[in-house]
Amino acid sequence: MQRRVTFNSKFLPYLLLSPQVAITLVFFFWPAWQAIQLSVVQQDAFGQHSTFVGLTNFKELFADPDYVKTLIRTLIFSSAVALTALIPALILALMCERVVRGATFYRTLLVLPYAVAPAVAGVLWLFMFSPSVGIVAYWLKKMGMDWNPRLNGDHAMCLVIMAAAWKQISYNFLFFLAGLQSIPKALLEAAAIDGASNWKRFWTITFPLLSPTTFFLLVVNIVYAFFDTFGIIDAVTSGGPAKATEVLVYKVYYDGVHALNIGSSAAQSVVLMVMVVALTAIQFRYVERKVHY
Amino acid sequence: MSTNTLGQRSNWFPHLILWIGAFITLFPIYVTFVASTLTPRDIAQTPMQMWPGSQFLSNYMAAWDKGSAGTYMSPPAKRLLLNSLIVALVVTFGKITVSLLSAYAVVFFRFPGRMFFFWMIFITLMLPVEVRIIPTYQVVTNLNLLNSYAGLTLPLIASATATLLFRQFFLTIPDELVEAAKIDGAGPMRFFKDMLLPLSRTNIAALFVILFIYGWNQYLWPLLIVTSNSLDVVVVAIKKMIGGGAEPTDWHIVMSTTILALIPPVLVIVAMQKQFVKGLTDSEK
C-alpha cells in the first residue's frame, strides 16, 4: 500500500489533500453528525426548542406500524427489482456470447438504458402505462384488464419495479458478459465432447463459475433498488397510491421535506446509514473471497 | 447443417432472444420519440399511432425556445439543458481533479496522518446523498448556497470512488519511473504534471463517462435545493412538467424535452463505449 520511492515535502501533501478533505468535512461529516444529533432530539412544533430524548425517535420508529410496513415493502420491492433485472440480463448475456455476428450491435443497444436518468426512465414508463394516454395501458385494457396504477397499489408497484429493472438490466448484462468471457472455453468444450447438453453445461459449469459475479450483482442491485430508485418512484407514483410504493428512501424524503418531521426523518437516515454500511461490508467480504477464488 | 464444437446447430435462437431484449430496451424510447412528433390531440387518441407524425420541428422548436406552460412554468429546454450541462461538467471535472490530487498525496508522499486522511475519504464511499439529504440540505442552507450552481454541485463532489480508483492505478506505477524522474531533477508537481497525468489518461476518460452520466442524471439533490425555476436541471423539469392533475400535461412538449435530455448521455455512452465499460468495471473493484 505504501510505495518505496516517495517525494519529500512537509506541506505539499496536505495542500493536495485539502480540497477533498474540505468538501468531505463540510458536506459529509458535518451532515452525518447533524443527522445523528437530530435523531436523538425532539423539536417542538415551531422548531424553537429541542430536547434530548435519547433513543426515543428510534423506538417510536420501529413501533410505528407504517414504518415497519415501509420496511417490508422496501424488501419486497428490492428483491423484485433485483430478480427482474438479473434473470433477463443473464439470459441476454448468454445469448450474446453465442452469436457470432452482431454482438457489438446488440451490446450497444442493450446498454442504452444505463444512460437514462431514473426519473426520465420513470417518465417513459409512466407515459406507456398511463391509463389515459398510454399505449400499453390501452392494450392491457383491450385484453380485459382493469389497469389503473393511479388507484391500484399493486399495479403501481408493478410499474415501478418494471421501470427500475429496465434501467438496471444494462449494468447487469455488461457484468455477466465480462464474467462469461472469463470462463475458459476448454472446460465447456471438454464437457461438450463428453456429451453434456447445453442445459447441463450451463448448470454444471457456467452457472457455478459465474456465482461470484452473480453474488456481487445481487448486492449491487439491492443497493440500487434501495437508493437509486428515488427518481423513478417520485416520477411514476410519488409514493402513492395510498403509500403503496413508498420505500425507505422515499419516506425519509417525505417525512423530512413534506411532513416536516425532522426528528423521525433523521432517525430514518441513521437507520439507512447502518444498512448501507452493512451492505458495503458484505460486498467487501465478497471482494476478499474473490481474491482467494 | 453446420455444427461447432459446442454443438450449437443453428444460430437463430440467440438472435431471437436478443431482438426481444433490444425491443424491450428501445420500445419505451421509441414511443416517447413518436409522441414528440405528434400534436397534443393525436397523443390523446387511443390508441396512439405508432409511427412518427408531422410535428417534429414545431414541437422541438417550442420545447427549445418556450418550454411548457401550465402550473409549472418551465424555462425553455435550452436553458434546462445548459443547467444540466454545467452541473454534469462541474461535478465530473471537480471530482476528477479533487481525487487526482488527493490520491497523489496519499500514494506518493509519506507524512503524518496519511492513513487517517485515507480512511476519512474512504468512509464516504458508503453513504450516498440520498441517505443524508435533510442534514446536507441544512448545511447548504447555512452556507447560503441554495439556488446556486455551487450548492448544486459541491456536495456531489464529495465521494471516494474516484480517489480509490486513482490510488489503485498509482500503486501500479513502477518505482523506477519515479526514481528516474527524481534523478532528472523533477519536483513532485513536475512529476505529477508531466508523467502521472499523461499516464492516467485512459483512467480519466473511463471515469469521465461514468461521472458525466452520474452528474447529468442527478434528481433528488437538485429537486431539493433549487426553488427558482431558472436553475432547474432538465431531469427535474421534466418531472415537474407532468402536472398533478389540475392542469392537463403538455405531453408533446414533455416528450420532446425528454428526447433532448436523453441525447447527451446516450451520445457519451455510444461514442465512448470502451471507456464506459472500463469505467464501470473498474469503479466496482
What does this structure look like?
With 293 residues, chain A is mainly alpha-helical. Chain A is 74% helix and 2% strand. Chain A has twelve helices and two strands; from the N terminus they run H-E-E-H-H-H-H-H-H-H-H-H-H-H. Chain A has a two-stranded antiparallel sheet. In chain A, helix 3 packs across helix 7. The mean pLDDT of chain A is 86. Chain B has 15 helices and no strands. By secondary structure, chain B is mainly α. The mean pLDDT of chain B is 86. The radius of gyration of chain B is 24 Å and the shape is globular. The interface between A and B is large, with 106 and 105 residues.
Please outline the helices and strands.
The complex is a heterodimer of chains A (293) and B (285).
Chain A: H1 12-39, E1 41-43, E2 50-52, H2 56-63, H3 65-98, H4 103-111, H5 118-129, H6 135-142, H7 153-181, H8 185-193, H9 198-228, H10 230-236, H11 248-258, H12 262-292
Antiparallel strand pairs in A: 1-2
Chain B: H1 12-35, H2 40-44, H3 56-65, H4 77-108, H5 114-122, H6 133-142, H7 149-157, H8 161-171, H9 175-183, H10 188-199, H11 201-216, H12 220-225, H13 234-241, H14 251-271, H15 273-282
Helix pairs in contact in B: 1-14, 3-14, 4-7, 4-8, 4-11, 11-15, 13-14
- What is the topology, as strand order, of the major beta sheet of chain A? 1-2
Gross geometry of chain B:
globular
Indicate the radius of gyration of chain B in whole angstroms. Answer: 24 Å
Mean pLDDT of chain B: 86
Give the N-to-C terminal Cα separation of chain A: 22 Å
Assign the structural class of chain A, choosing from mainly alpha, mainly beta, alpha/beta, alpha+beta, or little secondary structure: mainly alpha
Order of helices and strands of chain B: HHHHHHHHHHHHHHH
What value does the Rg of chain A take, in angstroms?
24 Å
Low-confidence stretches of chain B: none
Roughly how many Å apart are the termini of chain B?
Answer: 44 Å
